[in-house]
Amino acid sequence: MKKLALIIAIPVVAILAVVLALVLLVNPNQFKPLIVEQAKQQTGLDLVIDGDISWKFFPSVGFTLGQTALKNPQGFTQPNLFKVEQVGVDVSVMPLFSQQLDIGEITLDGAEFYLETRKDGVKNIDALSQNQASAQQEPANQESSSNETAPAASPASDWSISLAGVAITNALLDIQDQQTGSHTKLYDVSLTLSEFAFDQWSKADFAAKGETNQQKFTAQGTAELNLAKGFSQYALRNIAFDASYNDANNQIDEAKIELATFEFDKANALKYSVKGTAAELGLNLKGNAQLSVDKALSKVVMNQWVLDANFEGASLPQSPMKVDMLSDLSFDLTKNHLSFILEKLTANALQFDGKLDVTLTDIPKIVFNLHSPDIDVDALLGQGSSEKTVANSESDSKPAADKSSAPAAATTEQEPDLSALKSLDVTGAITIDKFKAANAKMQNVTAKFSVNRGVAKLTSFNSNLYDGSIKATATLDARKSPASYSAKSFITGVKVQPLLIDVADNDKLEGTGNIDVDVRGRSLTPSGIKQNLVGTVKINFADGAVNGLNVAQLIRENYAKFKGQSLEGQNVAKKTDFSAMTATLTLNKGVVKTDNLHAQSPLLRVRGAGSANYIKETVDFTISTSIVGSLEGQGGKDIDELKDLTIPVNVSGSWSKPKFKLVFDDVLKQKAEKEINRGLEKLDEKLGDKIKDEKTKEAVNSLIKGLFN
């Protein structure tokens, strides 16, 4: 028992002896000049230590410094570059007797770092780099002065120092840039590294709060670190990062990143999630990827990047919107080049795949090629047929007072903000198997376009639609507001009626159509487009019909009324067939005109001229019809006496309820002239030989015509 007590007492006595020796033989204040001297040599700045240095023995042997500050160079607003309320240092005891200071851990409590950039671009930390440059010249200076008598060595110069680690609590980082006017603060910063040793796993924890201008954020995280001697390589594992952010328009409650491991040149499993609100858009997203970074820190790769997201908000075409993505991403830091391969991207019913390349310069250069099997813009915007019916019924049920407020709503129109186009350099192509917009259905859509410093160009557009095809080009110039635009399109072999039914719910026209469009304008508001649109539209229809109007029946009815007769048993379709129809429409700031409408069939020849106002949605158009065949084929009895006469029909009023009026005065004059000419021909046959004098003959003809007129 006595031997056991003796064995236990020996190390206790030894420890007490060491502690007593430290207190009696080693004065920690002798390190002050050493610390100040080393700080001056390493930084070129003055270090001020207020108060004495005292020993501490719990929880480990070491000493503490009072308030300490590293002074700023002259010319900066803050007096200090670095300031700390208290510095605690743990040291190994036995090396002290050999004048060797092995620091196990430095604890900085209440540390404050002030980084500042003046208006002339000079930074307070420039003094540190300048001092390092001058330090590299010291060996040469020392050689030249080696033959000179060295000054007497100070007590501090006999000591050597080594440092193992640092722990920071309650720290502040203040960053001011007077050139940009920005000011960022990180406060309540803490960083701890437990049981740090080379070639062993150590755990690190950090936390911080911050604000910059009107933005506030928090961040905290943990990781395990394995650092090799000589800092030749390192590895991380069990990495977790959690942050939050808010400003006037955004509130990110949670942003998390997790990495099971992180090693260079290896695939590391990454998980992430974000919840909050951004620009009045609620978002909840999560995902994962395989992250790899090369040792040279020149290339970052994220393979099998998965995104599972939900967005909600009034600004979305559909809310909520579910977005799923699977892609591969690589970023070459040496070339500032991003490559993005999109295996799949879905947003509700929309689906895309393709490739994107971005080269980061002053104006990023973007090149992409996308494909979609099916895009239904109407479904995305909630503009299906059922919605239209509901909307129309609601608008029809509104009283007149509500409709009168429509012009006031038009005053709220604003030109879209296209300023972002000025900072883009984009070249792209898109292929869509099926496409629907404004209820028009297209197939095999291919489009190529570019955006370069405010000018967007649709260099080519090709599509199949309604048994025909369309080709188009367009340009949008957004360098000035309002934006200007031009467009050309060539529609060939399109079935007109199903197109009109789908787009305008109108079946008034049938046939196979070719349409050439060449328009230009300024402004992108609905009313601005109508008021500024100019150009031409050429139409060429074949084998069609105009529904809602039976020209032959209209002629019969009006002619029967004129003769005081009635048409009995006439129940014919309101339809006028034609074998061909051509016209050139001229658009000029709200009004469309034509003077060369021509339509023909074996029975009729039709010419048309007039105008329509597509702002007021009114029409004033005259159709002149010549009967060249039997009207019987147009669903009624023939009227031989009107054959070879030109009959004008005026169409006027609103688009929704047009009025048709046959201008019969011209018909009567033509018929009278026809009868006069026929009578004169007969008179010439009977009396031609007897009336040989031409003047007499002309006088007789004029007399007869005057009687008919």
TrEMBL record:
<feature type="region of interest" description="Disordered">
    <location>
        <begin position="386"/>
        <end position="414"/>
    </location>
</feature>
<feature type="compositionally biased region" description="Polar residues">
    <location>
        <begin position="131"/>
        <end position="149"/>
    </location>
</feature>
<protein>
    <submittedName>
        <fullName>Protein AsmA</fullName>
    </submittedName>
</protein>
<dbReference type="InterPro" id="IPR007844">
    <property type="entry name" value="AsmA"/>
</dbReference>
<feature type="region of interest" description="Disordered">
    <location>
        <begin position="131"/>
        <end position="155"/>
    </location>
</feature>
<dbReference type="GO" id="GO:0005886">
    <property type="term" value="C:plasma membrane"/>
</dbReference>
<feature type="domain" description="AsmA">
    <location>
        <begin position="1"/>
        <end position="595"/>
    </location>
</feature>
<dbReference type="GO" id="GO:0090313">
    <property type="term" value="P:regulation of protein targeting to membrane"/>
</dbReference>
<dbReference type="InterPro" id="IPR052894">
    <property type="entry name" value="AsmA-related"/>
</dbReference>
<dbReference type="Pfam" id="PF05170">
    <property type="entry name" value="AsmA"/>
</dbReference>
